[in-house]
């Protein structure tokens, strides 16, 4: 199956991942039938749907709000309220993009935040049967609380109210609000919806690197990673950070560590990795060249649907985070110093702790946890700059794994 990489160079995609200006919800105008340069077909319907019709589609399972490649719901109450106010004031909004599946259901390509907000606001007037039907179709809908508007500047009389607490005139107006939609029909080339997702990835809520990887390299491996990161064990080692979790921050750090682990040999030196799927990468070996995202992309291209690698990923994560917790407890992944004052997660420290401690047995780590923590504290104090600047260049990658050498000599000596 062809994919998004047919239209965009790998360099462009790497730049996109590293570009903080990428976000969602920009309207893209397309014709009813388009043939792409690679010969793929795009068939679309342009429709307007009322909010009441949208809610019916959600409750009946016709509309899937959160397909695997989409971000989780990230809008805060103020942003949701402002969007609802815009709808009630008949302010035009960007087009929502949906894709038709083989079973005639629809999934959201762009507009998930807006549609979820509509559902959140509407939820207060749904009856018990409708709510039970929602839960059966999509468990994630249970977590969405009825929206109480706040921070409105124009319709100030609606502040601190749910839809259920408003008069019938306002309820009727909201039920009849129409949202513009483009539906990519199922007869279109299978992967073209992901191309559209990438093209319209501009707007108000920034799309981070891991979320974009979920689009470009969807498959068994990232699905397994997403499942693992929903677990309590992962949540605990990161200190239960809901925002980081919601934006796939756990996933990004753990994937980074798993990919780097391949490049570190038993002597803590940087090595070349033999490629197992030469057809996917069109080369025989992978080398770390100083750009972490290049290495991650190559890894995902090779193993995106490799079930054995999925099992290895799960084993690595469970094993390494257990060992990190033994030594660092609630100081895991942080810049610990003599005052233990830092509360922020440092990605490079997280990677180093996960990879390094995965190489030692649990019994060795338990017997020497004080020595290990002291060793890391001293190493961090003497090499602070490699955890703060140019952290992914080749020289700094080599330098940070000197801790592995230091620790090995202490534990074996």
Question: What report would you give on this structure?
Answer:
This protein is an alpha/beta fold and 413 residues long. It contains 20 helices and eight strands. The chain has a six-stranded mixed β-sheet with strand order 1-2-6-4-5-3. The chain has a two-stranded antiparallel ribbon with strand order 7-8. A hairpin with a 5-residue loop joins strand 1 and strand 2. The longest helix is centred in the C-terminal third of the chain and has 22 residues, at 307-328. It is elongated, with a radius of gyration of 24 Å. The termini are far apart. Residues 1-37 and 202-206 have low confidence and may be disordered.
Uncertain segments are: 1-37, 202-206
Radius of gyration: 24 Å
Write down the overall geometry.
Answer: elongated
- Order of helices and strands, N to C? HEEHEHEEHHHEHHHHHHEHEHHHHHHH
Distance between the termini: 53 Å
User: Which structural class is indicated by helix and strand composition?
Assistant: alpha/beta
Number of helical regions: 20
Look at the structure and give the mean pLDDT: 83
- Sheet with the most strands, sense and barrel status: 6 strands, mixed
Roughly how much helix do the residues carry, as a percent range?
40-55%
Hey, roughly how much beta strand do the residues contain? 5-15%
Strand order of the largest sheet: 1-2-6-4-5-3
Q: Tell how many strands the DSSP assignment holds.
A: 8
> For this entry, what is the oligomeric state of its chains?
single chain
